[in-house]
Structure prediction request, 842 residues.
Amino acid sequence: MKSRSFSVRAGCWTKAGEVSLGQNKNMNMLWIQSGSCGGETISFLNAEQPDIMTAFHLLNIELLWHPTLGSIGGHEVIPVLKACTDGSRPLDILVVEGAVYQGPRGTGQYACFGGRPLMDWVRDLANAAGYVLAAGTCASFGGIAAAGRNPMDATGLQFYRSRPGGFLGENFRSSSGFPVINLPGCPAHPDWMVETLLDLSSGKLNLSDLDRFQRPRVFYGKLAHHACPRNEYYEFKASAEMYSQQGCLFENLGCKATQCESDCNERLWLGRTGSCTRGGFPCISCTSPKFPDGFVPFFETRKIGDIPTTLPLDVPKAWYVGISGLAKLACPERLKVNAVSFKSVETEGETKS
Amino acid sequence: MKERTFAISPMPRVEGDLEARVHVRQNRVTEAWIAGVMFRGFEKLLIGRDPMDALVFAPRICGICSIGQSTAASDMLGRFYGVGMPENAYWVRNTVLGAEIIMNHQTHFYLLFAVDLTHPSLKGRPGYEEMCRRFHSLEGEAYLDVLKNRKTILEIMGLLAGKWPNSLAFQPGGVTRPITRSDRLRMLGVWRSVREFIEKRVLGGSLERWLEVSSLSDMDRWLGEASHADGDLGLFIRYGREWGLDTLGKGQSRFLSYGAFPRPDGSSLYKSGFSDTQSVASLEPGSITEDVSHSWFLESHSLHPYEAKTASDVHKEGAYSWAKAPRYQGYVTEVGPIARLIVQQDPLALDLVKELGNTVYTRIVLRFHDLMIILSAMETWIRSMDPEAPFYNKHKPRSEGEAFGFSEVSRGALGHWMQVKNGIIVNYQVISPSTWNFSPRGFKGKPGPVEQALTGTPVTDEQDLIEVKQIIRSFDPCLFCAVHSGGIS
Prediction:
């Protein structure tokens, strides 16, 4: 029988002053930070309804080790990791935050952990794990860490940008038979982490639930454009000309929300209070394998003639030109005026009953 | 007795990757080395890009202080493009940065620092059982309470900055998100909840009463009043000195602050300057240099960030860190809440440092003090936001020149420097607070602030080195961004 205790305190000091390796929970989880900024950890800590402690309890998941949570460190951590890699402590879920730094010259020495390249830890732990989760765009695809000329020789776990392969290779499968499960986003929304853990702990995730970039379709099957409060402005091509204005950010100010596969504008962030476009700044498509270099310039819209080069994902150009021309003609005065105002302006006819 | 060397690697519960090595003789640390063990090459990533790209890359340098990085980068770009901000933008930026600092200070104490007060080797000390009841990781009452409630303030951040980490709401010329009257009311409501939580959990009494505390003896008087002794700060103040934390980790005495939370009239909540605790000199940005004599970078003399052109060298003799060694007028210098309070000539900070020195105890108490000052000011900032007035000024393009941007973040002074030619970035340098505090040895082998604070530390258990860890954590290390820069040879 599974333990009914609600303790998740693995990776902590016990009262006897020893390191607890946890109890027999449904599943355990180990979180390692590779070439990261810590942003995925911060985002995960921001989880609410359920918050992370409630989630661990609800899902009966024990935290084996996390670099910020728990108490152990130094000489106490390495044995925990080794117990996982040598099989004496089965590891159910490995979460990797950050890109894998392979530089300089394939040695991985740009990032060490306990005197050993992190790269080597990531490989050994991934090979031992039941499931491997890539938290964030860097771990999934390389992301910001692999931008431009990629001086750190950074890569994602199983993709390098859009190309399958990455650090572990295209054929990698964890012991459950799954490839790396990618949860991109810069950062990933905490719900994406918690809900994926729910699916794993209840055995509900199927291979067919993942999309072409190994992302759970349930989060990445929508566009950041969906539920954007500026959608009426978008429909009539009533566009903001500078930041702080209320109009659509697509035509002039670089917004890529119609290309970004993510449900973040429906789900919302930080106590469900905000999102990028609600914050008045453009979506830069941070869940994409092509982030960041595929989305420059970030703050203005590149155009040929009057037509943006960054059209919505599956809208043919000719249709876009036709529809947007008509939409502009049909645009109500209310939207024209408010699109270029930072505050709500009343126009004639608005209050007609 | 023989001298022995111990390494703490990996150092847990710090933000980012850090290793400490200490020499111990007769149960005392005789010498210490602090190393950043991850190289992230961020500044190199920015070379060749549009200056505005800094807004996307800067917050991603550090997921912990991402707003702080955005503040410095947008301040720098505002200076570069020569564009000023409307009044509202000051209040919004101060509020969002303040929210990040308030949350980070709580995270630091409860999730990272106080856990050490529950270490099994400390059993038997007065108050130990109570420390465990509150601060045990993942089960202590206070730990869990804060893990849940630290997030309340994020609702203010969500309204003004959209998401966190990694917002793009701070632009040269202002902020992207105007507010309505209902937003303002909602933010005041959230602020009130945060204040009530801090008063109950941390202070055991009113915010105003704490802000009147102006000396060590005054603080002891405060402790005796109301239920102050039962708050988490009271508990720390009560037992911290009994446990000797007031003599642990005595650091050097030069402090730097870039000043923070500017107001439209040119004044600010925190002044900028450089202080040896006796007097304060005005800040001269030209006096900041970076030394790489003990870092894995090629050149070996000190340079101003505008001149820095570094390339990595993993085989360099005598080098032991990916962090560089920033110096002010050549001096080893500490930054952080304690530094901005001393530069501000805050009476409590000056008295604590005079009576007890710059120790683990002082740093922790003053980090809370910083939190209370910012929390109190935040109400005024929110009330000052005017929904009827503008939030943003558009800038004109510029393709040549250089600029710097400064901010104070949770851990202290943060600076960005950028040079632009033909519309693209040709040099970008970041000096983060932990680069100052956790700097390796510099010129003539003079140790950095934390290395100095560790020297002379008593060691009760060579296996655990708990005192060493407490000292390191009292500086609130964040090595995500301290480990630096430069290029690849």
Remarks:
- Chain B touches chain A through 89 residues (CB under 8 Å).
- Chain B has one domain: 4-482.
- Residues 4-482 of chain B form a domain with the Cytochrome-c3 Hydrogenase; chain B fold (CATH 1.10.645.10).
- The two ends of chain B are 44 Å apart (CA to CA).
